Amino acid sequence: MELGLNGATTLKADLATDIAVAGRAGFDFVEIWAAKLLGYLERGGVPALRRDLKRAGVKAATLNSVERVTFNDPSGHIRMQEDFRRFCRVAEAVGCETVIVVPSPRPKGVSLTAIERESVRVLRELSGIARPHGVRLAYEFLGFADCTVNTLAQCAAIVDRVARPNVGLVLDTFHFFAGGSRLDSIRQVDPRKIFMVHINDVERAPRRKMHDALRLFPGKGIIPLPGILRMLKAIGYAGKVSVEIFRPQYWDRPPLQVAREARATALASLRGAGLS
Fold it and tell me: Which run of H or E residues covers position 192?
């Protein structure tokens, strides 16, 4: 199993720093944060990105992310497509296999049936855009009440209905817990459709009041990580795991220190579940 560092965990660092500290901390890959990528490309371009990855000895596993991909007006939909196409071109150029896409907040009065229909339509469209580049897309549910797709079961059902080989999902342990996903819902997911697992933890708080800034290093909070990880092992998941934490207090620390603690705590959780 490969372990990676998501650029959100070191949000104040630039992409070159993310890549360097990921390599020094012993990670196998990085998840490239979208805003950092855009600034990086303006300065150095794709050749510099390939060089930095090679020098650090890490791979780029995902570009994270194209957000609000559903329920856009016509002009917003075109902009979203343009962003996705650009990410696919970059991903192909640097050997990055996956672009993460995120559903939109829930419009007032929209039914679950309409959410599924819109998600399937958009994901099939993006699948067609990604295919010539050899790129996959991973749909990431967000465990917030106002998100259109907020549980693993709902997300997996959508991905199943899309029925495209290059479309899968992201399981983020924070969103899994905050959104009230059930452990047994993992059993219903084809492990080949889980393109990334984001591992993290969270402070004690009512689930519906949880937000990203409450995230913690794995094993430092109240998420039942052992149960989630053991269930992933039970279904045969042996894919990539990445540490994604949006904690301002961590952003103010030296990035290498954060990367090293992120890796150590994630490894401890994975080993405890027999997944490392």
Answer: none
